[in-house]
Amino acid sequence: MFDDTYTPDEIAKMFKISKHTVYELIKRGELHAFKIGNKMRINSEEVERFKNSSRDNAGASQPSLGSTTIRLTGSHDFIVEQLTKFISKESSLQIHPTYIGSLDGLMMIYRGQADVAAIHLLDPNTKEYNLPFIKQLFVHEKISVIRLVSREQGFIVARGNPKNITSFGDLTRKDVTFINRQKGSGTRFLLDVFLSKHEIAPKTVSGYVNEEWNHLATASHISRGSADVGFGIRSAAEHLGLDFIAVTEEKFDLVFRWTQENEEELKRLYEIICSDQFKSSISKIPGYNIKELGQLIYKKL
User: Fold this and answer.
1) 155 pLDDT tier (thresholds 50, 70, 90)
2) Whole-angstrom distance, CA of residue 191 vs CA of residue 187
3) Residue 243 β-bridge partners
4) What are the structural domain ranges in the chain?
5) Mean pLDDT throughout 138-145?
6) Residues 6+ apart with CB under 8 A from 12
């Protein structure tokens, strides 16, 4: 399920078209892309779909983004990726994802710029995930919070853990280089909560200022030796054959903002999330607990 992804430049070379044309295809909804930070990516499955569609239709345009498209934003996660792929195969719905981190994603649906936000934000005061932030932001809006999964967060290290990294205190060692996540991501927020709890100043962590935009990119630094440790999810570590030291299990939720325009689409999305077929499709992905999948955690309707 962890398909390769391509940049617009690579797509342009593949199809012998200009990069401008690639962006036009994305804009019109004929080629489905997602963002990781400010970088556009297209997965290999979508490339094959587009290739077959172009062949079948001999260049005819596909419908542009319409009312059946759900704008999903927030945190990047492998389960969210699987959800978008599952829906593209099994449903007439379309999901247009933009992965920009939990905090920025929540602000996008607050501003009405997205329909769904994927978030995992720990409130350091209440030790509760997501709801304290949601209750502060959304006063008049129609909101539902759906539990997607619980997932393991911890230290991603090289196979065999050669630097013997077992605690947050080890991040301050002179022989350890860290790779961080970007500001606004739930993982960065969680890391900072733990550093504060252990009274560790960020400036004492070598590599704290070095940022990546998703878990797999973070793990890749460990895999190629440009960092000794990152803070991330188990599934990213296992995907690249790295070791993982579990620290905590966090709650990963989807926030639905309901409008007259998206009501039917969000109802259908919720049905798909709760379906046995989708549950089966994610049941073997490591590092996740799906026993609360689809539970309604909070609503304000």
Assistant:
1) very high
2) 6
3) 157
4) 5-148+251-300, 153-249
5) 96
6) 18, 19, 21, 22
Give the pLDDT score at 224.
93
Residue type, 27: K
Cβ 48 vs Cβ 55: under 8 Å: no
Give the tens place of pLDDT for each residue, 33-56. Answer: 887 777 788 888 788 877 776 555
Give the H/E segment covering residue 176.
Answer: none
* Residues contacting residue 161 through CB under 8 Å, at least 6 positions apart: 243, 245
pLDDT tens digits for range 63-84: 344 446 899 999 999 999 999 9
* Distances, alpha carbon 46 to alpha carbons 11, 72, 282, 285, in Å: 11, 17, 20, 21
Long-range contact list for 262-268, CB < 8 A, 24+ apart? Answer: 262/67, 262/70, 262/115, 265/67, 265/68, 265/69, 265/70, 265/93, 265/115, 266/70, 266/115, 266/116, 266/144, 268/91, 268/93
Report the topology of domain 5-148+251-300: D-Maltodextrin-Binding Protein; domain 2 (3.40.190)
| CATH architecture designation of domain 153-249 | 3-Layer(aba) Sandwich (3.40)
- Alpha-carbon distance of 129 to 75, in angstroms, equals 14
Structure tokens at 93: 């719905």
Whether the full predicted model's pTM is greater than 0.85, yes or no, is no
For residue range 10-24, list pLDDT tens digits in order. Answer: 888 888 777 777 887
Per the listing, tokens 């539970």 go with 295
Which H or E run includes 10?
helix 8-15
